[in-house]
Design a protein that fits this description.
With 124 residues, this protein is of the alpha+beta class. It contains two helices and seven strands, in the order H-E-E-E-H-E-E-E-E. Strand 4 and strand 5 form a beta hairpin.
């Protein structure tokens, strides 16, 4: 009967790992604190995104790669997961899908902020 408590502990641990916020952190930049992926790269939101859906595809997504969900993670507020047209999943914060910018080269770069008046750094 000692294996029963161990089985319960394993199930609880597996369930807890699926219910987690995305791998993000706050990074200090010249524009103040911004939300960044675990790798330190700044995350952005796109003003054309509406209703919790991404409007950034094709060339847009090449320049602004989506912050994709890995595995079977589920979100906790204020984070959500949005489904892209191809069925892949992308992280969002406060209903706004999150993206990287290809011209950011290192942690703390915020070169995408304000591009075409459509892109903003994501704030913690």
């Amino acid at each position: 009967m000692k294996t029963f408590p161990l089985a319960i502990a394993i199930c609880l641990a597996a369930g807890a790992s699926a219910l987690a916020a995305p791998p993000v952190k706050t990074v200090d930049t010249e524009k103040g604190p911004v939300l960044a992926a675990d790798n330190g790269m700044t995350l952005y939101t796109y003003k054309e995104d509406m209703g919790g859906a991404s409007a950034c595809y094709d060339q847009c997504a090449k320049n602004w790669p989506p912050f994709m969900v890995e595995g079977d993670a589920t979100a906790e507020a204020p984070y959500t997961i949005v489904e892209r047209k191809d069925g892949s999943k992308q992280w969002a914060k406060d209903g706004m899908p999150l993206y990287f910018f290809v011209k950011d080269e290192k942690m703390g770069d915020v070169t995408g902020d304000g591009v075409k008046g459509e892109w903003d750094v994501a704030r913690p």
